[in-house]
From TrEMBL:
Taxonomic source organism: Longimycelium tulufanense
Organism placement in taxonomy: Bacteria, Bacillati, Actinomycetota, Actinomycetes, Pseudonocardiales
Name of this chain's protein: Uncharacterized protein
Length: 66
């Protein structure tokens, strides 16, 4: 079986509106993506969790701050 290409949109945070391309099943997407922002001060981490809905397709949604 050949892999199929999928698109996942980033929702929220500094990556909002960007798209990630992945292939499955051979290259299954990461369930969580961590974005590290370095700006000359302390580093800032943002975590995005993968989800799927029939209306929006694949999305990496910004995890709420704890």
């Amino acid at each position: 079986m050949s892999p199929q290409t999928y698109l996942a949109r980033f929702v929220g945070g500094p990556l909002d509106g960007r798209w990630e391309t992945f292939s499955a099943p051979a290259g299954a997407p990461l369930q969580t993506v961590t974005h590290v922002y370095l700006h000359g001060g302390p580093k800032i981490l943002h975590h995005y969790d993968l989800s799927y809905s029939d209306e929006q397709g694949w999305e990496y949604r910004l995890r709420a701050a704890q």
